[in-house]
Design goal:
CATH superfamily: HUPs
CATH architecture: 3-Layer(aba) Sandwich
Structural class: alpha+beta
Distance between the termini: 11 Å
Strand content: 15-25%
CATH topology: Rossmann fold
Number of domains: 1
Number of helices: 3
Largest sheet: 2 strands, parallel
Shape: globular
Order of helices and strands: HHEHE
């Protein structure tokens, strides 16, 4: 995360990272937080653990991509 923060900051992008502890579903917590804070972009990792992971996102990342109100950038983790 530190490397990504440094890279983005070097290009003039303001980076905020947040750890969220929740009892609800992870995708819902991410989406709700982004809406409440008027986030412009969510960057999320995808492990790609399925057999055909080359073409599929994980359940959390695919749900966030589908329902988030803002742009979502998925990074292969």
């Amino acid at each position: 995360m530190k490397k990504a923060d440094e890279l983005l900051s070097s290009h003039g992008l303001k980076v905020k990272e947040k750890e969220i502890v929740t009892s609800s579903s992870v995708p819902d917590a991410i989406i709700d937080y982004a809406e409440k804070k008027s986030i412009d972009l969510i960057i999320i990792g995808s492990l790609g653990l399925s057999a055909s992971s080359k073409f599929k996102l994980g359940s959390v990342s695919s749900t966030v991509v589908r329902y988030a109100h803002c742009s979502v950038y998925v990074v292969k983790a």
